[in-house]
Design a protein that fits this description.
35% of the residues lie in helices and 17% in strands. By secondary structure, it is α/β, with parallel strands linked by helices. The structure holds D-galactaro-1,5-lactone.
């Protein structure tokens, strides 16, 4: 794979992937709505708003694979989610199809299945249980990825990312954390594995408290190097007691599920 487009390159995951993928591909083409002023060797920059099809199409020219990290990354009002993650996502796949791109890494989220209780392991084929508008948009993206694989032969790896960070920041994240290098490993599998058509994996490290069955990732060769449990003592020492009146502590999505929740009066 020679030329890889990274959308959302100025964001936290985008910036980490720039670092992790340095020198791996001939050209890492950075795209973001914000300017990037430290473009390094092997990188180029395109200013792109994913809702702007023209700019997206220009950035997509000559690209072999796309890592799509742009978009709304937390819960928001419908207009915002719609613009970024529905219109933007559709534009992304259309621009990829028009440009003859063969692979897309789609960053789905644990929030596509955020209303599953924590007392079971959720696999890649589980029916969606989104915990908000954002979660719905992430499920939509997976469906678009499936359509573009089956109809237009664009291979997609959908990574239901837990929480990508330097280390797990609270008890919930001990179950869903992914380190930067483990996430980069999944991204590379998605771009380079010969047999990706439409696959869903969980973007989590080797976490003892995981709520996910990540068998598909392991079958594709994923060997995570980091473990949330290594941070468990320090995380649990500062954890505040959970509020039993809230739904968040009982389901995967945590505070995302709590927002606007009207059950359990
Ligand atoms: C997500 O999908 C978000 O993009 C990220 O910001 C975190 O909030 C994460 O989920 C999480 O569930 O912790």
């Amino acid at each position: 794979m020679k030329t890889v487009l990274l959308t959302g390159a100025a964001g936290s995951i985008g910036s980490a992937l720039r670092r992790e993928l340095k020198g791996v591909y001939g050209e890492l083409r950075l795209a973001d709505i914000k300017a990037i002023n430290d473009v390094g060797p092997g990188e180029t920059f395109h200013r792109v708003d994913v809702a702007d099809m023209g700019a997206l199409s220009a950035a997509m020219e000559g690209v072999d694979g796309v890592i799509h990290m742009a978009g709304q990354s937390v819960e928001a009002d419908w207009d915002t989610v719609h613009r970024q993650n529905i219109v933007g996502l559709y534009n992304l796949y259309e621009a990829a199809r028009n440009a003859g791109v063969r692979r897309v890494i789609y960053p789905s989220s644990n929030h596509a299945v955020g209303f599953y209780p924590r007392n079971r392991r959720v696999g890649a084929r589980a029916v969606f249980r989104p915990d908000g508008r954002y979660g719905v948009s992430k499920a939509f993206g997976e469906l678009v990825a499936a359509l573009y694989a089956d109809k237009y032969d664009i291979g997609s790896l959908c990574i239901r990312i837990g929480n990508a960070n330097d280390k797990p920041i609270d008890k919930r994240r001990l179950s869903i954390w992914v380190s930067w290098r483990d996430l980069a490993q999944l991204v590379r599998i998605g771009l380079e594995h010969p047999d990706i058509h439409f696959e869903i994996v969980y973007g989590v490290s080797d976490n003892e408290r995981s709520w996910f069955d990540n068998a598909t990732a392991y079958q594709l060769g994923y060997r995570p190097q980091d473990r949330a449990e290594d941070y468990a003592a320090e995380v649990l020492a500062r954890e505040q007691p959970e509020d039993p009146a809230k739904v968040g502590p009982r389901v995967i999505g945590g505070t995302f599920a709590d927002e606007e929740y009207v059950g359990d009066p």
